[in-house]
Design goal:
Blueprint: E1 12-16, H1 28-38, E2 42-47, H2 50-62, E3 66-71, H3 77-91, E4 96-99, H4 114-142, E5 145-150, H5 162-182, E6 187-194, H6 200-204, H7 210-221, H8 231-242, E7 253-256, H9 265-272
Parallel strand pairs: 1-2, 1-4, 2-3, 4-5, 5-6, 6-7
Bound molecules: nicotinamide-adenine-dinucleotide.
Pfam families: adh_short_C2
GO molecular function: cyclopentanol dehydrogenase activity; quinone binding
InterPro entries: NAD(P)-bd_dom_sf, Sc_DH/Rdtase_CS, SDR_fam
């Protein structure tokens, strides 16, 4: 599968959260790192769990790509600064940053604890802030760069994840503001908003059983296409936005969600009637 069309040939990319929660399937960061490497980029794979990023590196190197692992916790400024320095020292420059780290947290405004609110903002927003803070000056100096923030449709539709939704909404606001501030420095900033994709992280939080199977089915059925989405769907959108093919696109959020934002629930009812909910 070592095909290359060279969309990002010769570029240097950082992908944060480039490992993947263990389990079947592939996370969005891992898939994005592999996609960018297949398209010709050298990729710094950043993860707080480096053994996960090592598996991504193996996958990339198996198909002839170039990658290195950086172990770091991107909620910490020192790690974010060292990450950017490592990319430049290892590969010579920095062209692309994919801010992919994130994790959902279920809870309403009433039952969410303050500590959970802060932690969710740290993981979903602070990591992107710090990674960007140290990446932008390198890109500005060369007058070119592309940043892709991985958001979520939770920023756009209610789903009972108050802190996560608010943090992803802020990430989209950050996308627009960065696009404004750094456009004249040749830096594009965009976001991808994945919908109900299935990744190992999603599967890991639901206990196996008929309810989990039902939710799996519904993740496909809720969209206009009626097919499942995964980390690769996000990866190819991120790779496009990162590449020069998107050279006149900045400040946008690209939904990757099988059209769930396009339709009202009522209009989906006829399609969903064929999916009986389990009794348990
Ligand atoms: N899975 C979905 O359905 C879905 C839907 C919408 C948006 N997203 C977004 O996609 C992104 C990735 O989701 P995924 O399902 O692939 O997750 P994942 O858990 O498989 O991958 C995230 C990686 O980030 C790493 N990480 C976590 N905190 C870190 C930190 N402080 N510093 C460095 N690395 C850290 C983890 O170790 C993990 O390997 C997230 O931003 C998530 O919010 C996912």
């Amino acid at each position: 599968m070592a095909y290359r069309t060279g969309r990002v040939e010769g570029k240097v990319a950082i992908v944060t959260g480039a490992g993947s929660t263990p389990g079947p399937g592939i996370g969005t960061g891992k898939a994005t790192a592999v996609a960018l490497a297949r398209e010709g980029a050298s990729v710094l794979l950043v993860d707080v769990a480096p053994e996960r990023a090592e598996l991504t590196r193996e996958l990339i190197e198996e198909s002839g790509g170039k990658a290195a692992v950086f172990a770091g916790d991107l909620t910490k400024a020192a790690d974010a600064e060292a990450m950017v320095r490592t990319a430049v020292d290892t590969f010579g420059t920095l062209d692309i940053l994919v801010n992919n780290i994130g994790r959902a947290a279920v809870g309403t405004v009433v039952d969410t604890e303050e500590a959970d609110w802060d932690r969710t903002f740290d993981i979903n927003l602070r990591t992107a802030f710090l990674a960007s803070k140290y990446s932008v000056p390198v890109m500005a100096e060369k007058g070119a760069g592309s940043i892709v923030n991985i958001s979520s449709i939770s920023a756009l539709r209610g789903d009972g994840t108050i802190a996560y939704s608010a943090a992803k909404g802020a990430l989209q606001a950050m996308t627009v503001d960065m696009a404004y501030s750094h456009g004249r420095q040749g830096i594009r900033v965009n976001a991808v908003a994945p919908g109900h994709i299935t990744t190992p992280m999603v599967l890991s939080v639901s206990a196996p059983g008929s309810r989990a199977e039902f939710m799996n089915t519904m993740r496909s059925e809720a969209g206009l296409l009626g097919t499942p989405g995964d980390g690769w769907d996000v990866a190819w959108a991120a790779a496009f936005l990162a590449s020069d093919e998107a050279r006149w696109i900045t400040g946008v959020t690209l939904p990757v969600e099988s059209g769930v934002l396009t339709v009202t629930p009522l209009m989906m009812a006829p399609h969903l009637r064929g999916v009986p909910e389990p009794a348990e």
